[in-house]
Amino acid sequence: MDATCAYCVEGELLDKFGIKICEMETSKVYLFKEQSHEGRVVVAHKKHVSEMIELSDEERNAYFAEVNRVAKALHEVFHPEKINYGAYGDTGHHLHFHLVPKYRGGAEWGGTFAMNPDQVYFDEKKNAELIDRIRQALQVK
After folding, report:
1. What is the rounded CA–CA span in Å between residue 77 and residue 74?
2. Could you tell me the pTM of the whole model?
3. Does the domain spanning 6-138 belong to CATH 3.30.428.10?
4. CA 24 vs CA 1, 106, 108, 127, 139: distances in Å
5. 141, pLDDT greater than 90
6. Residue 88: is its pLDDT beyond 90?
7. d(CA 72, CA 92)
């Protein structure tokens, strides 16, 4: 755990960009508040590591199984043409993936997604609806 890490602390730093959807065995899933790509989420490993090479084979495989599970849920709920996967963290050293649904003819179709285009934000009711739909697809509470 790192006391300066948004994913470890889950306080004000995380609240700036994400809303917790659920916890799974190895990861935590967050709705990315900026929704230019409806359904965009972050899947963060529970363990504070910077790189996947810091995980055992079993930990890595379990984590990627959960990333896959979330991707399947996003396909079920939002029916994107494609999901882009982004793993960054140059300054925030905590292993996490952005899962970004892409829609033909939609924002940035055919190109790389912007980290935070700062264009589309939903109200609490809409965010709660998205979270409920994702939780149902994941079969979690």
Report:
1. 5
2. 0.95
3. yes
4. 17, 30, 30, 20, 11
5. no
6. no
7. 27
